[in-house]
Here is the input.
Amino acid sequence: MRKFSYLVLVLIWGLISTDSLAQNRKFVSQFSEFQSYFNPALTGYEGSVVRGFVRSQWGGIEGAPKTYFFNAELDFGELAGEEDPALMGKNAISANFLQDNFGAFRENEIMLNYASRIRLTERHNLRLGVGINYQSIRLDGNALSSEEQNDPVLGQYLGSFSNMNVLDLNLGIALTHANYYFSYGVQRVTGGEIQNGDEFINGYPAEQMVMAGYREALGQNLAVSANGFYRTRKDLPDVFEFNLKVLLKDVVWLGVGNRVNYANSLQAGFIFGKFRAGYVYEYPLINSYLLPGGVHEFSLVINLFRPNERRNDGEVLIW
Here is the structure.
């Protein structure tokens, strides 16, 4: 029964990933909480923080995808004690670590980002970012399904271990304001040209990403935010997703999300001191329903230098 469940999972994931089982997109329901992972230009947009999330899909099935992420960002303007570092500061850096597990594959990704800001107006910045991306993908030939064993590329690794390493570049640009932003980024600019180890993935095309958001305080006890995310890559279908949140008394938020034609999500979270914690339950739409059970995603964000408190009546504490 376990082998049968895993085989079904592999077949489904193969349909989602098209060219290769290990070559899948990294979906994050709370994408607005982890902007700098997708676009290095947004590094430091929320100041100096430490973030993380755990995402578990199709629980109860052996080999189901699990993703772990950790991020640390340092804004030099905040470190120097600027009165308004988000506007006055010029430089920020971040380190990101992501581990994605699925079946016979384990992917570790390390990303180092740098962002520089140019002040355009009294309240607007133009942000430019660059990131170095290193991915190490491990294939466990002992965990291959019968379907994978018959694959002409993967089958040759049956009963052994193999590693593939990819070094690439990410670029981004963003226009930011305290209440809204618009950004464009590209991950894997060279298309994975710099590789070593065994090549069990057929290419790694560049992916273009557009992300935007707006937030506003409607009073002392109510604020709203809306974010949208569009992704395009030549070997996969285009994806558009968005989420809407309501923040109550700067303590609790509730939200909904939609990945168009794929999934809906329900979101909730709370703020306490320097901490911000969130939970998402994502479930597939009927026309994309593949397996029973949904996706559970837990996140935690810690501000390093200041608590989550409004500095003025118009400030909003979440995206």
In short: Residues 1-23 have pLDDT under 50 and may be disordered. The longest strand covers residues 125-140.
